[in-house]
Each structure stands twice: as C-alpha cells, then as structure tokens.
Amino acid sequence: MRTETRAIGNVLVVRLSGELDLGTAPEFRAKLEEELDAKPDITRIFLVLRDVTFIDSSGLGAILGRYRRLRAHGGGLFAIAPSPQVRKVFDLSGLTSIIPVYETEDEAWARASGV
Amino acid sequence: MSATNHVTLEFPAIAQNVEFARVAVACFASQIDSFTMEEIDDIKLIVSEAVSNVVLHGYDSPGGLVRVHAVIEGNVLTITVEDTGRGIADVEQARQPAFTTSPDRMGMGFTIMEALSDDLDVSSRPGAGVRVIMKKAPRMAGSEEHERRS
Q: Is A78:A108 a contact under the CB 8 Å cutoff?
C-alpha cells in the first residue's frame, strides 16, 4: 500500500494505492494522523481511491476514523473514484450514506471544496 | 469441474497473514472455472473479514493460530475459518451490523460475510474458539441454481 498526500489550501488530497486491510490500515492511519497534526488548517480530505485494488472493513474503519476526526471540527472526508470492488464494500457497509463519493477529483473540487 | 479438492492453511493470528490467507483461498477457488472475477473478489473479501476477526478478537495473548480449510465439492466452495481462542459469548449480538468493540472500526465484518456468501454459519463457545463456515458457488446467471439462490 502507498499513501501520497498533498495539501492544497485547507484540503488534503490523499492518493492511496494497493490494498487497505488490517495489515496496512495502521500505516495509513498513522500517515494521515501525522499530516492532520502537522497541518491544523486542514478541514477536508479528498481521498482518491482509483488505484486501491482491495479494501475490507478494517480499511473502511481506518477511513471512517479520519472522517470522524474531521467531522468533529466541522470538516469532512470525501471519497473519489473508487474501483468497483471498493464501491461494493462501501455500499455493503453503508459507508456511502456517511461519506460522499465522487467519480472525479474535478467533481469533488466543484462540489465539496467550499464545505 | 466436478472433482473434489481441499486445502488447509494454519498460521499465526497476525495482521500480516490476512492478505496471504485471502490470496491463497482465492487462488484455490479459481479452480472452479465458472467463478467470475467479481466472485473471486467476494471470496477474497469474506476470507479477509473472517481471518481479521480472529486476529483482532480471537485470542487474549499472542501466539494463537488461525486454521483455514477450503473444500471444493463439484461447483461449491466451502471455507472454514476457525480458532481455539476465547470465543464469542453472544454470536447473535456479534453478527449484528455495526456491533464493534473498537471506535476505529465499523463492526461490519459479519454483515459483509453474510451478504457475499451463499450461506454463513457461525458457532462458538466461550473459551473454545469460533468456527465460521461460508459457502459460495458461481452465480451462473439463468441457471436453476441461480434462480434458487436469488
């Protein structure tokens, strides 16, 4: 699993690739917590999931934990371009009713950058 | 394919082995030619959930083992994931959506296993471990078997 981050204004764009499960979730969680601690102006995460090849409920939990952190301060987390496998797990778990999902980064910037 | 085949894996209940278990079972499952790629992904997911449960909740101390047994009989794959750990006091409660013992988790493991397998059986006795049995067969749209399951 690989996590690349880039702060643009108060948005942290996170590009995730590989598999997010019980084995890799701690690294993902630590990386994002470190970024959020270091950049207190960040209010939103755009999580780009295009290159995530597998996710399970441990991976979802790691995403949900970061969503909760940002929501607690009025911000949010937005999922972008999930692969069919990721989308299926989001739907099955009910995460799509909590976290907005956009098909493209442009759509996220247009609809969520002012949240 | 109508042959019978089986494989047994036994490994320590640690997070690094979750990927190994799901990939190994998915590879074995692909011997059933008519599984689609989506169904193979489903198998990876349900194995990942079952093995993760053991890693997270199975044992009070390190060193516990997970045993995964997969059997192909005709067109049906049966996967058994079991441990000899502390067990679940209330299986019905544990199977409820959003039941979790941790704030950074979703509690959706059993819900996913139930949704993506054709049959899920969970049995446990406190102190005697948990056994999860999941069955999955190819959907094969239009077949009598498919009609019965859908």
A: yes
What CATH number does residue B54 fall under? 3.30.565.10
Q: How many domains are contained in chain B? A: 1
Provide, as residue numbers in chain B, all residues whose Cβ is less than 8 Å from the Cβ of A19: 19
Query: Can you give the length of chain B in residues?
Result: 150
Q: A with B: how many residue pairs have Cβ under 8 Å apart?
A: 69
What whole-number distance in Å separates Cα of residue B108 and Cα of residue B100? 8
The angle subtended at Cα B132 by Cα B87 and Cα B72, nearest 5°, is 150
Q: Point out the residue among B48, B105, B115 whose CB comes nearest to the CB of A61.
A: B105
User: Active-site residue B75, yes or no?
Assistant: no
User: Interior CA angle at B126 toward B123 and B129, to 5°?
Assistant: 55
- Is the model's pLDDT at A15 over the cut of 90? yes
- Write the residue in A19, A65, A93 that is nearest to B108 by C-beta: A93
Q: Go through the domains of chain A in sequence order and give each one's CATH number.
A: 2-112 (3.30.750.24)
B53 is an active site residue = yes
What 3-state class would DSSP assign to B73?
Answer: strand
Residues 6+ apart with CB under 8 A from A77: A44, A45, A47, A63, A66, A67, A70, A71, A99
The model's pLDDT over B53-69, given as tens digits with 9 standing for 90+, comes to: 999 999 999 989 999 99
Whether B104 shows a pLDDT value over 70: the answer reads no
Coil vs helix vs strand at B43: helix
From chain B, the residues in CB contact with A85 under 8 A are 41, 45
